[in-house]
Write a structure and sequence with these properties.
Number of helices: 18
Number of strands: 23
Strand content: 15-25%
Distance between the termini: 91 Å
Helix content: 40-55%
Structural class: alpha+beta
Radius of gyration: 32 Å
Mean pLDDT: 82
């Protein structure tokens, strides 16, 4: 029966969570429509504010509204006032918008963090005013972890509130999980203190779970009792489930696997059900006491296996989490009934121990739920109620196993006094195993410290690399009497694989280059710095040589510098000589020209023949490049860009495309280079909508002055 009781405990835990969600839903149904959200006052003394009761929300059922629609007057009377600290809108396909206003009543600028404490939100976008429009930042559980502006397990937006000013803020929630709004405003000092104070508590909790896992697993290896194996499986799966639920697993274990992070919660819920049921059946000898209960447990066991397998096969979080939650509620309910049957009907010794464990864990969960709904104060024991209850639960499970050993020992002594020596030897082995576990725990703690230091250094190195790369690129476009130039540069992450340059010789603009390195991250960023230096040097020293030979020489030097690696480059070089332009293309996106006289837009090539050459930086290939010269007349416009501009996709997966890009350039106003660039990017952004860019974006517009 004992091995059944942990299963019951887990089900009861799940039942508790289900009760918590039910309470949240009941509270939400009581939320009235408010006249307007309160203004949240901020000053230099502000440290932490939960703003759940100071927000308004609006349900966008079709998910088609943009910030201009949401912030417009048409929806002014349709917002609803939140009346609970943590609004929960359940599982829905709607986009939920939340708005509130921050007001700085102090005479100094205030740096803040806006935290969405429930981390399992697939996409969360913040809109704040900038001039007459809004700027947006999007993060979420379904996006790569390194795209977050703040390296933390929950979703954090940095804010800066100017002195004596107000800031209206809009949040768009789009997720496959429950829309659980849990917003907190932090001062940055208070948030940093919280992180420092919370870290040892969390890692102590997970350290205890890992030690108990190692303890039970090592005993299993020693005595080959399957009860210990399933207990160890339950502990490690529960540990990974909690880390996934709180965002720690995504931060530290699989930050580059958003698809897996999205599926981990329902997957481990299924594994927990499997392990705890098997633990109960083996340890408690359930078939021996009650075959009906054992048959139901087998059905639940099969269901847990199906949930975990289908989670991986279907790759559908919404279906998986609903199935796993429903199964958890059913298993917890039946497990509670079976636990009481074994305690009061069969008088099972282990059942009494696990009833205590179940009660302690349930108490911890209830403390956290009551704190969440502001029924209890936010103190240590309520804030970490689930973790404290889980530790007591796991310790009680292991103590129950130890109690089973003691019972077996007494029974063996009664059967045969000569077995005392063997029991003593086994006890000594267990004591030795405990000593070894202490060493393992110390090793784990040291490893965690080493890992944290390595991650801190890696973050510093990445920031330095981004600063170095940003410092080497031109900040402003050169302006001459005969050329009007504007450019835009939007790296996907801190270190970009795109780069551009403007070449000036003798105080005059001699040429322009735009390049794209394959791949992303530090490796691509390092290649951009090496390549920029090589091209810059050869453009200056090869002023009298044909531009294609300059490119070929640069390619050879680049191959010698970077060696035989997987990354390669594409790019365009332009050289200006009065009205004439010399043009070379190395497997890059086509150069587009808009004629000033006719307004016609077309690709620059040689009588319809493609002049693009081979990739650069490929060690086994040194192909020649072809140069093309053409005349740039007054008001002619040249467009240089990386492939992100036409390969960008909207939320339906449709590409922007070269045809739309050419039409956008044709429709652009007859104005300066900056106005043309703004028109192109605005048209691109309207098409993309809320979809994410998947590559670095670089665009250069050159207009020949009249």
């Amino acid at each position: 029966m004992i091995k059944y009781l942990p299963a019951l405990h887990t089900r009861s835990y799940k039942a508790c969570i289900s009760i918590g969600f039910l309470l949240a839903i009941l509270l939400i149904t009581a939320i009235p429509s408010g006249a307007g959200a309160e203004t949240i006052s901020i000053d230099e003394s502000t440290s932490k504010i939960r703003i759940g009761t100071s927000i308004e929300y609006y349900e966008d059922r079709d998910g088609r509204l943009g910030i201009k629609d949401i912030a417009g007057a048409a929806l002014a009377g349709k917002w609803k006032k939140s009346d609970t600290a943590t609004p929960n809108f359940g599982f829905t396909t709607s986009v939920y918008w939340v708005r509130f206003t921050l007001k700085n009543r102090s005479g100094e600028d205030v740096d803040l963090y806006l935290e969405q404490a429930y981390p399992l939100i697939s996409y969360l976008r913040l809109f704040v005013p900038e001039g007459k429009s809004y700027t947006s930042t999007e993060i979420g559980h379904a996006k790569p972890f390194n795209t977050r502006p703040v390296d933390h397990r929950s979703l954090i937006f940095p804010l800066k509130l100017k002195a004596h000013s107000s800031m209206p803020c809009y949040l768009a929630y789009r997720t496959e999980s429950a829309v659980n709004v849990e917003l907190v405003i932090w001062s940055r000092e208070a948030f940093n203190r919280q992180v420092i104070e919370e870290a040892p508590i969390l890692w102590m909790f997970y350290g205890i779970l890992l030690v108990m896992f190692a303890y039970n697993f090592m005993i299993f290896l020693s005595i080959r009792d399957q009860s210990y194996f399933y207990c160890a499986l339950y502990i490690i799966s529960f540990c990974l489930f909690m880390m996934s639920l709180t965002g720690l697993a995504y931060q530290y274990l699989w930050p580059n696997w958003p698809w897996w992070s999205n599926l981990a919660v329902p997957f481990f819920m299924g594994i927990i059900i499997i392990s705890i049921i098997q633990f109960a059946r083996h340890l408690g000898e359930v078939p021996k006491y009650d075959r009906v209960i054992d048959a139901v447990l087998k059905v639940l066991l099969a269901a847990g296996l199906v949930v975990s397998c289908l989670t991986l096969v279907m790759n559908n979080y919404r279906i998986s989490i609903i199935s796993a939650t429903a199964l958890t509620g059913i298993a917890a309910g039946f497990g509670s009934i079976a636990l009481f049957i074994f305690v009061f009907k069969y008088k099972h010794r282990a059942a009494r121990n696990y009833l205590i464990a179940y009660t302690l864990f349930l108490a911890g969960v209830l403390l956290y739920v009551f704190k969440t709904f502001a029924l209890l104060p936010d103190v240590f024991i309520t804030n970490y109620g689930i973790q404290i209850g889980a530790v007591f639960n796991v310790v009680a499970l292991s103590m129950g196993l130890t109690d089973r050993i003691n019972v077996m020992k007494n029974n063996l002594q009664e059967l045969n006094i000569h077995l005392e020596d063997k029991v003593r030897d086994r006890t000594e082995e267990l004591e030795e195993a405990m000593k070894e576990l202490e060493v393992v725990n110390e090793t784990i703690l040291n490893f965690n410290q080493t890992l944290e230091e390595a991650q801190r250094r890696a973050a510093i190195d990445m920031e330095m690399a981004a600063n170095v790369q940003a410092g080497m690129l031109p900040k402003q476009a050169p302006q001459t009497r005969d050329m009007d130039i504007a450019f835009a540069y939007k790296p996907m992450s801190s270190v970009s694989g795109d780069f551009y340059d403007f070449y000036e010789i003798g105080g005059k603009l001699a040429g322009v280059g735009i390049f794209d390195v394959s791949g992303h991250g530090v490796a691509s960023g390092l290649i951009t710095m090496i390549a920029r230096s090589i091209f810059f040097r050869n453009i200056r020293t090869g002023a009298g040589k044909p531009l294609n030979l300059v490119l070929e020489k640069s390619n050879r030097e680049l191959i010698n510098e970077i060696g035989n690696i997987e990354n390669y480059l594409t790019g365009i070089l332009l050289r200006f000589n009065g009205p004439m332009v010399e043009y070379v293309n190395a497997a890059h996106s086509d150069l587009i020209c808009k004629k000033g006289e006719t307004g016609e837009v077309g690709i620059v090539n040689r009588k319809g023949n493609d002049i693009r050459g081979f990739f650069m930086g490929v060690g086994d290939v040194e192909a020649p490049y072809e140069a093309l010269s053409f005349q740039l007349k007054p008001n002619d416009v040249l467009l240089l860009y990386t492939d992100c501009l036409y390969e960008g996709k909207n939320q339906e997966g449709e590409e922007y495309g070269l045809a739309r890009l050419k039409q956008s350039l044709k429709s652009a106003p007859d104005a300066g280079a900056q106005e043309i660039l703004d028109y192109l990017l605005n048209d691109f952004d309207k098409f993309i909508g809320l979809a994410d860019l998947t590559d670095d974006l670089s665009v250069i517009v050159i207009k020949k002055s009249a």
